Amino acid sequence: MPKSEPLAPTAAPTERQAASGRRWTVLAVLSTSLLLCGIDLTVLHVAVPSMSRELHPSGVQLLWIVDIYSLTLASLLVTCGTLGDRIGRKRMVLCGFALFGLASAAAAFSSTTPQLIAARVALGVGAAMIMASTVAIIRVVFTDDRERAVAIGIWTAAHSVGATIGPLVGGVVTEHWGWGAVFLVNVPIVLVILVVGARFIPESKNPTPRHWDLASVALSITGLAGVVYALKQAGEHLSVDWKILVTALGGALLLYAFVRRQRRLAEPLLDFSLFADRRFSTATLCVISCFGSYVALLFFLTQWLQQVGEYSPLRAGLALMPLAAANAVGATTGPWLSARWGNRAALTGALGVFAAALAVLALFGTAGQYASLAGPLLVAGYGAGVVMTLGADSIMSAARPERSGEAAAIQETSFELGAGLGVAVLGTVLAAMYRVTLPELPGLAPDHRAAVTESFGGAADVAAGLGGSAARDLLDAAERAYDSGFTAVAAVAAAGLALTALLAALALRPRPSR
Q1: Which residues pair with 369 in a beta bridge?
Q2: Digit-coded pLDDT (tens) for 92-105
Q3: CA 348 → CA 297, 340, 489, 494, distances in Å?
Q4: Which of 350, 330, 292 is nearest to 508 (CA)?
Q5: How far are the Cα atoms of 30, 151, 294, 383 from residue 24, in angstroms, in the given order?
Q6: Cβ–Cβ contacts within 10 Å for residue 304, how many?
Q7: SS3 per residue for 48-61
Q8: Which domains does the chain have, with CATH numbers?
Q9: How far is it, in rounded angstroms, from Cα 132 to Cα 153?
Q10: Longest dimension (CA), the chain
Q11: Spatial CA neighbour of 432 closest among 258, 262, 283, 232
Q12: Which of 129, 188, 464, 510 has its CA 20 to 30 A from that of 248?
């Protein structure tokens, strides 16, 4: 993670010159690593139905499998950046690659749900170690301002491209080799990156590194985990008992203590004083809301198409390509829209367009009729791409130049935190609506009834054991309930984005001149 302190390479002058001559090789290694991290954010989305048939996770466990990666990554980005400044950024990145490869192999061969969740946590830790120091390495290697701007642009695009093509990669791999292979493909790529990275990436440290505050790390991780766990438990049981309430309150208090501690520390892990600028705080909220809704849409849309529309994994991945292509176009044309209409109007309009597309999807989208989905997906992808680009640019431009490091840290964290929270919050909405709309289905044994209400995968397993018209009736009921859940997800996300657009329109107004 970039810092505002001076970045001083520890390598000898001749080594620095050689590294500068091979700087584009370094960029290729770092961008490939970010591409992998982005792919792993969404690659499992298409493979979930196949994985569920083998591991039989509960609804809450399924949400943990999907978003524990991004939540772990978000909670450790700043921490790993500070630690990399102390021990050396090359060492941090290479150790991250090694952990990422080992965790990928562990995930591929997981035979139980807890094993897969643990492997996904390790993947998040490895990705945080990789992402935290790559921008700082780019700033060391690319000394020319113009080349550095191009390099950072390429590096930023690599992660977004990876997240967007993840479902397609997952569909292709799952179709031919099974869900475990979506992780196993990382291993040979990581081995190549380790060899090339060890040869070409120069070592660098911060001569005056920040203090690494272990208490702040513990507060942020445990607090976030407590709040998300309580949210998912409430969605699973459709009730809030004293255990869920205590967990949620405890997590919130830990997060409050984390914020208070950062304000008191001379060298905080996360500088919250930046949020005093309403442009900065509003842009951060826009990024969290937009990227969270976008990643959640990728995830739940792939499940909806496979479970209700009966798409194959490959076909579901291909169905998302209009969304991905429109997102790339929106990201590249966002600066032009901002230059023509102003950042406030472009950002607010893009949020409104994204919200409207999700509303249309909720009202008229049908899993079995792709023609009803293509238009809303194109519009949603374009709006999301504009918001991601302009939101990230607004975060950086709102901060003073000497604080660009802290701003970049918050920018990256907001993307990953948005991804994790988006799946967690909207997944709870889907699980609750699925259970509410599922009919009584008399005649099922208690254990079968529990499995059916737990998840769509459980309903499919029970139906496989019934056979005949009873199985078809059960699947029809589960499909209708899941369809209602996806409709609720699209509607809630649309409402959240509309509120975010209204907030952006009000908060990003220029200050009146005195």
Answers
A1: 366
A2: 999 999 999 999 99
A3: 20, 14, 22, 14
A4: 350
A5: 10, 8, 31, 32
A6: 26
A7: HHHHHHHHCCCHHH
A8: 20-201 (1.20.1250.20), 212-266 (no CATH), 277-513 (1.20.1250.20)
A9: 16
A10: 78
A11: 232
A12: 129
Q: How far apart are CA 411 and CA 156, in angstroms?
A: 11
Distance from C-alpha of 424 to C-alpha of 244, rounded to nearest angstrom: 15
Give the whole-angstrom CA distance, residue 150 versus residue 142.
10
- Angle, alpha carbons 45-48-54 (nearest 5°): 160
For the chain, percent of residues with pLDDT exceeding 90: 22
Cβ-defined contacts of 10-13 (< 8 Å, 24+): 10/88, 10/203, 10/204, 10/205, 11/202, 11/203, 11/204
Under 8 Å between Cβ of 463 and 451: no
Q: At what angle do helices 59-87 and 113-141 cross, to 10 degrees?
A: 30
Q: What are the structure tokens assigned to 200, written together?
A: 């070409």
Please tell me whether residue 452 adopts helix, strand or coil conformation.
helix
Distances 492 to 45, 88, 306, 309 between C-alpha atoms, Å: 20, 44, 22, 22
Q: Exposed (0-12), middle (13-18) or buried (19+): which is 328, by Cβ within 10 Å?
A: middle
Write the pLDDT tens digit of every residue in 170-193: 888 888 888 889 899 889 999 999
User: For tokens 């513990």, what's the residue?
Assistant: 218
Structure tokens at 18: 């050689």
Distance CA 250, CA 513 (A): 44
Rounded to two decimals, what is the model's pTM? 0.78
Whether the Cβ atoms of residue 270 and residue 75 lie closer than 8 Å to each other: no
CB hemisphere CA count around 434 (13 angstroms): 31
